[in-house]
Amino acid sequence: MKFLIINGPNLNLLGIREPKIYGSNTYQDLVEYVSDFCAQRGVETEFVQSNHEGDLVDAIQKAYFDKVDGIIINPAAYTHTSVALLDALKSVQIPTVEVHISKVEEREEFRQVSYLRPACIRTITGHGFAGYSMAAVALMDHLSGR
Ligand code: CA2
Q1: Pocket test for ligand 1, best of 74, 78, 129, 132 (most atoms within 8 A of CB)
Q2: Does residue 19 surpass a pLDDT of 90?
Q3: What is the pTM of this model?
Q4: What average pLDDT does range 33-48 have in this prediction?
């Protein structure tokens, strides 16, 4: 099984600023945590982080041709704006879980809307990095029909 983990704009700054909201661990720590978690369960991982919407669309399309089994996506600010990412997820039909490190539902009103949610099997918010491992488990369960 192979999962693609996509992180959107500014998540490369994890651990560098706003530790009260996003914690003090870095993007590299996140990659190591999620890849170890998945590897221990026999799941291969690939990671993409970009600050550019089109790069994220390209990554989703590439996942289709690479026969990726599941996608974990934290679209960051594009969550609240991107029809392009919604359309990309809808077009590839790969089971996807949306993750947010912070509890978006308790933050500003504009963060309450997710354009991508309708294309996702689950949305996980407010669990920090653990949200990504919860997403991996949700995909494993979904793909094994549990
Ligand atoms: O809670 C999340 O994971 C978010 O997707 C993070 C986005 C935000 O726009 C969403 O509403 C919720 C922002 C990511 C910015 O990450 C930073 C990390 C360190 C320092 C500054 C920003």
Answers
A1: 74
A2: no
A3: 0.97
A4: 98
pLDDT > 80? residue 71 = yes
* Ligand 1 site residues, Cβ closer than 6 angstroms: 10-11, 13-14, 16-18, 22, 74, 76-77, 79, 100-102, 104, 111
Q: In the chain, where are the structural domains located?
A: 2-143
Atom of ligand 1 nearest to the CA of 100: 3
The CATH superfamily assigned to 2-143 is: Dehydroquinase, class II (3.40.50.9100)
Retrieve residue 39's tokens: 């590897």
Three-state secondary structure of 58-105:
HHHHHHHHCCCCEEEEECHHHHHCCHHHHHHHHHHCCCEEEEECCCHH
pLDDT digits (tens, 9 = 90+) for 90-138: 999 999 999 999 999 999 999 999 999 999 999 999 999 999 999 999 9
In which order are the strands placed within the sheet that holds 122-125?
Answer: 44-49, 2-7, 70-74, 96-100, 122-125
Ligand 1 pocket: which of 5, 30, 78, 101 to mutate (most atoms within 8 A of CB): 101
- pLDDT attached to residue 142: 98
